[in-house]
């Protein structure tokens, strides 16, 4: 279960979130030192906001990790019931130009699928 959080993508994300969380507190301390040196109300507000941003980011990250742990790992794998391709219906009623264009698109689609299937074999 926890092994999913040890993939390279997740480890990089863990490190990034940790670095950003620590950075928000350093930025808050920096703004606090500017405010104490007579920076004004804006510096005081930023001194409070930076740690809040870090806490909010950490809260969202914990939720994302929790969702990943609750997710079914097999839901990404296609099953037998999945329809991978349906032949498009060609409208032959009404406008003959539209019907000819739709037939042309269907032919291009068939060629592309044939090349893709032949390429893999």
UniProtKB/TrEMBL annotation:
What terms describe the molecular function in GO for this protein? DNA binding
User: Mind telling me which residue stretches traverse the membrane in this protein?
Assistant: 12-32, 44-62
UniProtKB keywords? DNA-binding, Membrane, Transmembrane, Transmembrane helix
Name this protein carries in UniProt: DNA-binding transcriptional regulator of glucitol operon
In which organism is this protein found?
Answer: Blastococcus aurantiacus
């Amino acid at each position: 279960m926890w092994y999913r959080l040890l993939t390279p993508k997740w480890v990089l994300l863990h490190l990034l979130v940790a670095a950003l969380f620590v950075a928000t507190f350093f930025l808050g301390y920096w703004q606090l030192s500017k405010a104490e040196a007579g920076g004004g109300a804006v510096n005081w507000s930023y001194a409070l906001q930076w740690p809040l941003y870090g806490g909010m980011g950490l809260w969202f990250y914990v939720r994302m990790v929790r969702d990943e742990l609750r997710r079914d790992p097999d839901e990404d794998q296609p099953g037998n019931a999945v329809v991978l391709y349906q032949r498009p219906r060609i409208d032959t009623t009404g406008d003959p130009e539209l019907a000819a264009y739709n037939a042309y698109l269907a032919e291009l689609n068939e060629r592309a699928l044939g090349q893709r299937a032949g390429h893999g074999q």
